Amino acid sequence: MNFLCASHTLDGSLSCNFDWLQYFDVVVTGSAKPGFFHEENRANIFKVEPESGMLLNTDNGTPMPQVGSTSPEVLLKGLNKSCRVFQGGNVAHLHKLLSIESSSQVLYVGDHIYGDILRSKKVLGWRTMLVVPELEREVKLLWELRDMRKQLRLLRDERDLVEDQIHHLKWSLKFESFRDDEKQKMISALGELESQRDQARLAHQQAQRECHQKVEELPFSIRLIFHKIWGQLMKTGYQNSRFAHQV
Q: Which keywords has UniProt assigned to this entry (predicted)?
């Protein structure tokens, strides 16, 4: 955080300050995730003096007399600050420090789907947030193509419906008994459906080509929004991508 928030000097070196602490109520370092998320984790929690890096004993986060002292005044000097810095501990300590009564009061922002997001949601019941910046650009492009994509979906649904009817007729002709005249009508209907399917398939393929052509006509910077190999972030063809399933 010091690297992100502190100012840089003219020679490029980093000035060390703790101004960024004002934006937080509690900072926990050395939390040793994922063990931090388990309340049965017996890790001790220490108060940190940011200026010196000194670790001070606490009673589950509560100030206590330090070794060689009869009062917790050394620790209390830091309690007037807007932010308290600790090292170690577990999620129970964090809930106590922030006066959390219900897990649903916590909105957790993590950068690892399984190590952070999934574990904190399933084990602790925290509400979770995942930031996916690539989606903003992808949604913009998908909005540009919304009419074409709607047409493609309708054509695909029409083709799938005809194919379902064809499969049903073929199954009936193969496994059910019909009079000769009924069977002839079904064979005739099957031929008509196959013709409709071929027409729907051609219309769908033509719409796909038009969609691809429209994408090619978009500015190069917009076309680069989708990965040139993997395509959309949340889709693989018409199915959800592996990443989308994880989310």
A: Coiled coil, Hydrolase, Magnesium, Metal-binding
